[in-house]
Amino acid sequence: MKRAEILEAARVCVCGERERDYGTPENNFETIGLLWGVYLRAAHPELAKVMAVNHIAAKDVAAMMGLLKVARIATGSSPDSFVDLAGYAACAGEIATKEDSNV
């Protein structure tokens, strides 16, 4: 795939059906962050002393999902992993710039 094709495929994913299916990335990633926080506190009780349940922010979820894609690329790349990585980066960037403008 050419870079423009990867970016266009990512745009279609994050600006189209996925948002209709799962809601906005911000809301979806906030929910994932809450669930991850609860899981981490339950699986590692020592974290409950230092980590609030809602400590994993939407921007962090998007970045970590990008890291998941990087790990998949490292062990055997599929064009879909690059598309998803671009999509997660775009979502993280949008969330971060919204947060910056709300400060």
UniProtKB/TrEMBL annotation:
Pfam families linked: DUF6378
Source taxon at top rank: Bacteria
Residue ranges annotated for the DUF6378 domain, each copy included: 5-96
Protein name according to UniProt: DUF6378 domain-containing protein
